[in-house]
């Protein structure tokens, strides 16, 4: 719509309607029927689109239409166009999750599960949706059941954490864990994005859990290390699974072989990566434990 600038004799001033001025004798503008009908039809189209029956003399129907539910349609879940976003669309995109589904056992999720919370009420393996069906940045939120949960991807796709790729493209979580996976922009894969379950794979919590020798990093920088040594002499040099970056705070060892009641140990810190064991007899198998940062 616009003012009827192209219609002669309407009497616009500066392209706008003006009133008659009796003092100067200037006539007022005319409203052509064509223009008046067009303006009325424009307003009526909005009122009717909102499902309201136009009523003469009722001058609040346009406002009612603009505030109503029927005039605007909620765009599809991943719509990134310039369509008007309804409160339903905004709530789904930025507020609460779009819904919740409870699953039992092994499940292959689909694009319909993106943006929702999937709760697993029993142990199982969940396969994330096919990468090509989900827009970049799409999130899948999971809660592991009491027996834990394994998460994997489709054949040919990748699965990674903040620090590395997942072995065999599968990640495991203890019962009760909450995790969110994000569809990556490139590479045909998924990334572990957030949740308390993601702490297991955080660079601040890296670990190697082996009985023969392992370690656990903590976010503070503290590192716990342990190992099983085989003995074989009155002394031996042990290398930590990983070197302590700055200092060894505590080092201890103990015999696990029977029959050595009078065995005496002495442990000497050689460096941040090694220590020595001295004893009055060959201890055979023995355990050691160290703390440092």
Map the helices and strands.
Blueprint: H1 33-49, H2 61-67, H3 87-94, E1 100-103, E2 107-108, E3 117-120, E4 124-127, E5 139-143, E6 149-152, E7 158-160, E8 170-173, E9 178-183, E10 189-194, E11 207-208, E12 213-217, E13 223-229, E14 235-239, E15 248-255, E16 265-269, E17 274-279, E18 286-292
Parallel strand pairs: 1-3, 2-4, 3-5, 4-6, 7-10
Antiparallel strand pairs: 5-9, 6-8, 9-10, 11-12, 12-13, 13-18, 14-17, 15-18, 16-17
Describe, in plain words, how this protein is organized in 3D.
- It contains 3 helices and 18 strands.
- It is mostly beta strands.
- The chain folds into 3 domains: 33-67, no CATH class; 100-202, Jelly Rolls, CATH 2.60.120; 207-292, Immunoglobulin-like (Sandwich).
- The strands form 4 sheets. The protein has a 6-stranded mixed beta sheet with strand order 1-3-5-9-10-7, with no helix packed on it. Strands 11-12-13-18-15 form a 5-stranded antiparallel beta sheet, with no helix packed on it.
- A hairpin with a 4-residue loop joins strand 11 and strand 12.
- Helix 1 (33-49) packs across helix 2.
- The protein is elongated and about 125 Å long.
- It starts with 32 loop residues before the first helix and ends with a strand.
């Amino acid at each position: 719509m616009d003012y009827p600038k192209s219609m002669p004799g309407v009497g616009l001033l500066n392209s706008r309607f003006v009133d008659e001025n009796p003092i100067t004798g200037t006539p007022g503008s005319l409203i052509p029927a064509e223009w008046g009908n067009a303006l009325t039809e424009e307003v009526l189209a909005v009122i009717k689109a909102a499902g309201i029956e136009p009523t003469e003399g009722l001058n609040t129907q346009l406002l009612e239409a603009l505030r109503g539910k029927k005039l605007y349609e909620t765009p599809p879940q991943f719509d990134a166009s310039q369509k008007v976003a309804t409160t339903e669309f905004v709530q789904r995109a930025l507020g609460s999750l779009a819904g919740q589904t409870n699953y039992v056992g092994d499940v292959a999720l689909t694009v319909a599960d993106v943006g929702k919370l999937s709760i697993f009420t029993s142990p199982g393996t969940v396969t994330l949706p096919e990468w090509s069906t989900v827009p970049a940045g799409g999130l899948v939120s999971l809660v592991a059941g009491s027996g834990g949960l394994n998460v994997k991807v489709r054949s040919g796709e990748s699965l990674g954490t903040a620090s590395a790729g997942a072995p065999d493209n599968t990640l495991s979580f203890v019962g009760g864990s909450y995790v969110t996976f994000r569809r990556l922009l490139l590479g045909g894969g998924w990334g572990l994005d957030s949740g308390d379950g993601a702490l297991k794979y955080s660079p601040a919590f890296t670990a190697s859990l082996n009985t023969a020798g392992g370690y656990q990093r903590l976010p503070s920088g503290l590192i716990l290390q342990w190992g099983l040594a085989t003995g074989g002499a009155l002394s031996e040099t042990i290398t930590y699974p990983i070197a302590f970056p700055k200092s060894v705070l505590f080092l201890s060892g103990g015999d696990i072989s029977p029959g050595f009641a009078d065995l005496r140990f002495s442990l000497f810190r050689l460096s941040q990566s090694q220590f020595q064991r001295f004893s009055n007899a060959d201890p055979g198998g023995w355990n050691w434990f160290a703390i440092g940062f």
